[in-house]
Amino acid sequence: MRERAIPTLWAGVLAVLMLGPALGPGFVLSYDMVWVPDLALSTDVLGLGTGLPRAVPSDAVVAVLDEIVPGMVLQKIVMIGSLVLAGAGAAELVRERSLVARLAVVSLTVWSPYVAERLWMGHWPMLLAYAAVPWLVVAGRREALGERRAWWQLPVLLVGSLSASAGIVSGAVLLATGLRRRRRAVGLLAMVVAVNAPWIVTGLTHASEAASATGFDVFALRGDGLPAPLAALTLGGIWNTSVVPASREGWLVWVALSMLIVLVAAGARTWWRADGQRAAIVSLWAAGLALALAGWAAPTALETLSRGIPGLAMFRDSSRLLPLCLPLLMLTVAAGIDTLGQHRGKRLHNTAPRWATAVILALAPIAVLPDAAWGLAGGIGAADYPKQWQQMSQMLETQPDTGDVVVLPWSAYRAPAWNGGRPVLDPIPRLLTRSSVVNGDLVIGSTTIRGEDPRAATAAEALDAADPRRRAVALRQLGIAYVITDRTAGRAPTVAGETVSDDGGLLLQRLPERSGAMTGYSIGPVTLAAVVGGWLAYLAMVLIATSSTVLLPISKVLRRAARVRG
Q: Cys-Cys with 117: which of 53, 238, 363, 427 at CB 3.0–4.6 Å?
């Protein structure tokens, strides 16, 4: 039992070493990771806004949980929890292997280019999906053998399905490894569909917007310091080169690839003979690799197909799906380490060489990716929101006019000085309780990827009007009642309106009353019913998971106590 705890403790050490200053007071705000003290449960969060529901159901889950746990604490729990859960899951998946092999696999899993790049990019739902993968393989194997379903299976599936891409990864892993017995197949499929129902339903209600998605070539997997297919083998190659650790661009990346190939090759035969689910594991690896490389190999063809197949746009950032390759790497590397140990003439068991080997193999992933340490070498850190931002948010809550908000300058990302100059999606809309219209355009170098929200496109046209008053009138026609201008973020178009608050940094204005018919966004009854149905299915899974996590362990304790008394 003590030996089984060592890999989990090691995962905790690695998590703290990687996150470093990000665990300090304040919020980690990096690219797509935007957490606030108290996220409001708005229509946008539920997927009922005009934009694509990219953060469904993750935002809704956070909006509920941060009423119980402060947002800052919740974010720390998610970050360190995802890394520890990944490492512990890796050890559990290869629990029959030696301690040396388990420690090495924990390091390989936690100290991974995928983890470093997605953490820097702020894709925390994908980190949770990555962490859920090994546990779902274990759960799927139990399903396939007809064993009693693990009490943690549904909670882990929920944790690993907080976005569309995350849900695809988690659902695919559980189904690929667990769909073997017909009597359980229907229940397993229903569980996976219900867990993913919110983003499936809200995505279908925005199918026309999704069909306009472009930029497959921009979001295609990149090669880091390796050719793209080889980078994918190491679970690296994110499209945004700004979040790639510098060591991934030099000779160390070749060392990392060589080590991985040697260990996989050494263990492949042993694993193949012993694993009854080798076909499922290899299929997951092949699917993950093929999907990750599709955008790199044929971006134009995919973009053309996406116009007729709206769901295809979810695979634009296809390297998100690389966690599908993770189970094969874990299993073959662990087998390779034990195989190489046996070939040395004797097993390294309870000896000094055994521990020396464990230390070397456990530290090897760190040695080839050293700049993933201590907040990704400064790439991420903790910062707190300026007091005037929070005061402005509170002041807006007291305003009588109904209507939404536009935040200027009209750009998606900011790099505020109080956040160390780190790029982040504009945090102001998330600080508000009112719905906001935001710019969804993404500028990458000289390329602009247009956002899919039609209301945002109309707002952009309104802001292009000739003078401040015309801009104000056009925005009011869209149902927008307030404008917030962040003067520290660059130049912004002037809009005529009554000044509610002006502290020099943030300007809050109330737009004049509208004249004529409003061209706002309304939700049809069919759409509303479908979305409500999706959320009810999800809520049912949450309630079942809660009962299995809380009530089942309590009932076991009570039964044991009764047996002792009896």
A: 238
